[in-house]
Amino acid sequence: LEALLAALARVEAAEAGVRAERRERLPKLALGGARAEELDRTATTVSATLTVPLWGWNRGRIEEAEASLDAERARLDALGRELDAGLADAWHGCAGGQAAARRFGAEVLPRAEGSARTLGRAFELGEAGLLDVIDARRVLLDARREHLDLLLDMQDACGDLAALAGLELP
Fold first, then answer.
1. Cα(168)–Cα(86) distance, integer angstroms
2. For the segment 98-154, what is each residue's pLDDT rounded down to a tens digit?
3. 3-class secondary-structure state, position 58
4. Are 104 and 146 spatial neighbours (Cβ–Cβ below 8 Å)?
5. 3-state secondary structure of 43
């Protein structure tokens, strides 16, 4: 966001440069005056000078300023496109992370918990072996770890989105 504001300021400065160079080709009027006092007399002088550009009309400097303005506008446009692409990527990352974490929490975790619970009960009844229970608990712990990883990735992506949008997270 700060880079965008800086680019806008550079464009405004370039526009001001173009306006200043265009004013240079206009005739200029300079007025002056002086007053000199001596013991026996007082002299007052008024002068007017009109400068008229006859050759060149400052065309080269105007074109240079216009080229600089075009370059700054192109940089601003490129920065805008880059920010748009970054925002779109961050939005998709955040939305995709939320959907994946929600789906994992609603489908995979309950199945892993149910399986671990069922095998634990089966072990208590003598219908399952200890290795099966240990394996089911390991799968449950892996699923919980993966769910936490998904939540962390989602928070990172949503934090990137908030940073690009210029928002502060609570």
1. 17
2. 999 999 999 999 999 999 999 999 999 988 899 999 999 999 999 999 999 999 999
3. coil
4. yes
5. strand
**How far from chain centre, in Å, is Cα 137?**
45
CB count in 10 Å sphere of residue 116: 19
Q: Is the model's pTM score more than 0.70?
A: no
Rounded CA gap, 26 and 49, in Å? 14
- Count helices and strands in the chain by DSSP H and E runs: 4, 2
Q: Which two structure tokens, joined as six digits, stand for 2?
A: 């700060």
Residues 3-34 as b or e (16 or more Cβ within 10 Å = b): eeeebeebbeebbebbeebeeeeeeeeeeeee
Cα–Cα distance for residue pair 94/89, rounded to 1 Å: 9
Distance CA 32, CA 109 (A): 88
Lookup: tokens for 94: 């955040």
